[in-house]
Design goal:
Elements lengths: L1 E12 L2 E12 L3 E5 L6 H8 L7 E6 L2 E7 L2 E4 L2 H8 L2 E4 L11 H11 L5 H14 L15 H14 L4 E5 L7 H16 L3 E5 L3 H7 L2 E6 L2 E6 L1 H6 L4 H11 L1
Parallel strand pairs: 3-9, 3-10, 7-8, 8-9
Antiparallel strand pairs: 1-2, 1-4, 4-5, 5-6, 10-11
Helix pairs in contact: 3-4, 3-5, 4-5, 5-6
Length: 252
């Protein structure tokens, strides 16, 4: 079953068309990595599917529920209550962590499940502590974000997203704000999530990671999908000249 289906999505900012006609799907248990140069539209695409930006055209379907459909050439979003429910099907992890600085680590993780999902406080606390343990942060629950390294903050951000029990996770360059040592920490967590069959859509520039963890790789450039397929095809044997040029630049 596809947990995410995107059809003919378009997005412009003023006269600049950033997404030109993007169609793709993410199946349950699949890890899809999106690669591409800066300005290719990758992050804008992720912001559209996580509904931080509205689209100008196309359709988006989450876990079989339509969030946006096109009518008379214009995208129409479903009513707010339905949209809210659909948003609970995914979690989003930003490149700059976006933790609440005035909340402890534990409160950062438990706040939304308790107040948004109205779940039992004790149950949520137990789950949050288990998540922190899983992230190697069992002793950090009482700390504040400024007391943590970038890698630790990103692991808290992942735990916070998981605490909402999403069916899939979206990541926007989760390692780009980190140095190589901390990057390795986060890639290890993502590999563990992939092994547990967590459905993930990851915008990344980590080619080796995309090759080893993804079921499917999408290469974007100039607001279009240039090439997509298995990692060994797209990364190791790209058929498109733009893909080859991009990968060659990274190796240089």
């Amino acid at each position: 079953m596809n947990l995410l289906e995107v059809k003919n999505v378009k997005k412009s900012f003023n006269d600049l068309q950033v997404l030109k006609d993007i169609s793709m799907s993410v199946a349950e248990g699949e890890v899809v990595s999106i690669l591409g140069p800066s300005g290719s539209g990758k992050s804008t695409f992720l912001r559209c599917v996580s509904m931080l930006e509205t689209i100008d055209g196309g359709e988006m379907i989450y876990c079989g529920k339509t969030a946006v459909k096109e009518q008379d050439g214009k995208p129409v979003y479903v009513p707010k209550a339905e949209l809210k429910e659909i948003k609970h099907s995914f979690g989003l992890v930003f490149q700059n962590f976006n933790l609440f600085p005035h909340y402890s680590v534990l409160k950062n993780i438990t706040d939304a499940p308790i107040h948004v999902l109205k779940r039992d406080k004790d149950e949520v606390m137990q789950e949050a502590k288990a998540l922190l343990e899983k992230m190697g942060l069992a002793d950090k629950g009482g700390c504040y974000p400024y007391q943590l390294s970038g890698g630790q903050q990103q692991r808290v951000a992942i735990a916070r997203a998981l605490a909402m029990k999403p069916k899939m996770l979206f990541f926007d360059e989760p390692t780009s704000a980190l140095d190589p040592e901390l990057t390795a920490e986060i890639l290890k967590v993502l590999k563990e999530l992939a092994a547990s069959k967590m459905t993930m859509l990851i915008v990344t520039h980590e080619i080796d990671f995309a090759r080893s963890v993804s079921n499917h790789v999408v290469f974007m450039d100039g607001g279009v999908i240039v090439e997509q397929g298995k990692p060994q095809d797209v990364i190791d044997n790209p058929s498109n000249e733009r893909t080859r040029a991009f990968l060659k630049k990274l190796e240089a």
